[in-house]
Amino acid sequence: MINPVPKPVFLKKPKKRLQAKGRRLFRGREDDAYQDYIRGLPCVFCIAENRTQTDPTEVEHIVNKSHGGYDRGDTLPGCGYHREQRHVQMGTKAFARYYGKRFDLKAMAQKFAELYEREVSGLSYTGEQNK
Length: 131
Known about the structure:
The structure is a single chain. The protein is mainly α and 131 residues long. 38% of the residues lie in helices and 8% in strands. Helix 3 packs across helix 4. The protein is elongated and about 85 Å long.
């Protein structure tokens, strides 16, 4: 007896993310002015390692927007070298463990958000009104 030909297995197509045309997926979690502010700062990881920054500063999210993160309070300035290190070489968890021993990433991101708020509101770092 000849074995019958097995039936082909049809895999389900992956669901597409719902996104309205022309709109961003995570509206309300983005702040372009804050991202520009972060890009104007030096890489915090290069400073921690006493390394000369060779790549331009990028916005590095501690908590991704797809996991409930926002721009303010969840981002740090990082260079391309450390972005490559985080996403390709080490992975996000190992990167967080490695640099988390040196400083609290989430607390540092919150501090940058507070400094930005002070600068936008016109207060100096001592809490006095700028003229």
